[in-house]
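task queued by scheduler; priority normal; single chain, no ligands, no partner chains; default sampling; output format set to C-alpha cells
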Amino acid sequence: MFAQLKLFLKSRKGQIALVLSSTPLWKSIYQAIDAWGNLQMITDWLPSIWHFFTSTAGTFVVMASGFLVGGLQLSRQHKQIQGKAQNLVSENNAVRRPQPVAQGPEQRLLIVTPINGEEVGLRALVRGFISPPNTSLQVLIHSGDGLWYRQRRAEVDGYLWSVECQFGNERTQSGGAFKIAAMYGAELTDETYRALPTYDSNIIEVRRRSEEPTCADEWLHNIAELQRTNISAFVSIVECTLEGERLSSPVPYVEFGFQVHNGSVFWIDVEDALEGFVEFSHPQLDRDHRLGGQVLMRNNLAKGCLPGNTVRFVIEQRLSKEEASMITESMGIETAQFKFDRLFVTIAGADASKRVEAKPLPIRWGMTTRSIPFALLR
C-alpha cells in the first residue's frame, strides 16, 4: 500500500507542491523542506509523515503549531493598531500646538524703507511689505539705552504697511544707532521691553542725523533764505547824478554817481566789475547809440554796506572823439539822454554774509545832458 502511495505521490509531486504552497499553514513547512533542495524527501518520507500526523503526538504538534501561528498574527495586529493610535495622538497634538505666525512661503513680513545705514531724523516714516495682506503688525525701535520701544499702530493697505516711528528724542546726539524690527499681531502692550520678545521681519539699522534746533522765529529764517538766494531784489539804485565830464581831454569821458540802498538783512558789496553798456539818445539819431568806450568803476564806497544803509559809487564812461563831439553838441538839449538800464553791477555778500549768492542788478536810471535824472522802466 505504501509503495503504491509513494508511486502515486511521485507522479503528482508538482501538484502536491502547488497545494502545499497555497496553504498558509503549510507554506512555511514546505518552504523549509524545499530549502534543503530536495522535494524527493517529501515523496520518500510522506508515508511516515502521514503516520506521524495521524497519531496522538502528531495531532498535538499540529494544534501547538496552530496556536503559535495564531498568537504571532494577533501580536502583529496589536502592534499595527498601537502604531496607528500613536500617530493619531501625534497629529492631534500637532494641531493643538501654537505655531509661529510667520511660517510658510505665503507669509512674509519685510521692512523696505529706510534701508540699512540710512540717516533718519527724530521722526521718520517706516514702510514695508506684509503677507497675507491686511494682517496686523507691530513695529519696535531699539534705542541707545538698550530698550525696545513699541511704536504707534501701523497702517496696513493690502500688502503694504507704514508707520511713523520716533528715533530717540531732542537730546539724542547725531550718529546714534537704532534698530527697527516688526512682528505679526498686536499682543505687545508695554511701551518698552528690555529684550525683543520675538520678530518676524528683517532688522534694519539706522543712525540719527544732526538736526538744527527749531527756532520760534522760523519766518525770519525764511525771509533771510529768500534774500540770500535773490539778493538783487532787495537792493536798489535810488539816485543818479552827473559827476563831471572831460569831453575835450585826450581820452574823453563822462562820470556818473549812483546811490545804492541795502534793503536786505545781509552785509553787501557792490563789486568793481561792470557788465553791459551805456546808451546815448539824440533827436537827430534814428535809434539809441551804444557808447563804445570802456566803463570803469571809480570811487566805490559800496563795500561792506550794512542792512538799511545807503552808499555811493561812481562809474566812468570813456568816449571816442566822435562820441565826445556828439555829446558836446547836445549839451543843454533836454531830449539828449544817457541811459544806464543796459548796464549791470553785481551785488554779493560781504564779510559774514559770504553765503549770499551774487546776483546782477540793472541800473534802471537815465540822465539828460542838462543833469536831470529820470527812472527807466522799459
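post-processing summary
- DSSP finds seven helices and 22 strands in the chain.
- Residues 56-96 form the longest helix (41 residues).
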